[in-house]
Amino acid sequence: MARASKVYVVTAPERIRGIYTSWADCEAAVKGVSGARYQGVSSRAQAEAMLRGEGGALEPGLWAFVDGNHLGGVGVVIVEKTNAAQATVVEEGGYTVMEVLAGAGIPRLGSRAKITEALARLRNVLSELAALYLALKLVPAGATVSVVHDYEGVGAWMEGRWKTKDVVVAALVAACRALAGERGLTARYRHQRGHQSSWAGRDDFAHYNAEADALATQAGDRFG
User: Fold this and answer.
1) 33 CB contacts (<8 Å, ≥6 apart)?
2) For residue 139, what is the DSSP state?
3) Tens digits of residue pLDDT in 95-150
4) Which DSSP state fits 16?
C-alpha cells in the first residue's frame, strides 16, 4: 500500500484558506501574511477535516500512543475517549527499555547485557517495539485498542505487512502478538508522522504523539 502524501493546510486568514500539495506552494501563500495558521498533515482527508473545524479528533474508544528513541527511552500515553467531547489520559509514563524488557522472558532479550547489545544495534527500533509491548501490558484485558505509532514498522510488523528479518525484532514482535492474545486484546494500528505541529487547529494525534515522544526523551536521558 502506498503511503499517503503529505499536504499542507492553511486555516486562516480566510483569503488563503485551503489545501496545498507542496511546501513551496504553502510557503508562497503564507509568507508575510499576518495571522496565518498552517501546518503539514499526513493526508488530504485530515486537511479537509481541519478546514471544517473538526481537526484530528480522536473517535470514542481506547487509544495507546507509543514512542521510543535510540537512547533506550520508551513513552506510552493511554487515552480513553468516552464521547464526542471528553478524552481522558488514563495512564502515561516514560520508561527505559531495560525497565520494560528485563525479566519479560523474551528470547534473545533474556539479560541486561543482551538488551544493551540489541539497543546498540537496533537503536530506536528496539525502543519503539518495547513501547508497544508495554502498552499491550497496560491496557485492560479484553480491550479493543487503537495503537498510534510514529515508527511505521510497529503496525507493519504486527499486521504482517513487513517481514521480520532480524531475529531480535522477530522475537519481540512475536512476544507482542503473544501478549495481545493472552490478554484477549483486539488491536488496530495507525501510523502518525512524528514531530507534527498543531498550529492550524486541533490535532489530537499530534498532541498525544508529542506527549509520548517527550516521555521517551525524558526516560532516554535517564537511561543514558
Assistant:
1) 13, 16
2) S
3) 999 999 999 999 999 999 999 999 999 999 999 999 999 999 999 999 999 999 99
4) G
Judging by DSSP bridges, how do beta strands 61-68 and 144-149 pair with one another? Answer: parallel
What is the C-alpha separation between 215 and 219, in angstroms, rounded?
6
pLDDT at position 222, please?
77
| 190-212: average pLDDT | 76
CA contacts within 13 A on the Cβ side of 122? 25
* Alpha carbons 201 and 31: distance in angstroms, whole number: 19
- pLDDT-derived band at 196 (thresholds 50, 70, 90) equals low
Closest C-alpha among 190, 201, 219, 213 to residue 52: 201
Q: Report residue 100 as a C-alpha cell.
A: 520494560
Residue 119 CA from chain centroid, whole number: 19
Report d(CA 148, CA 146) in Å as an integer: 6
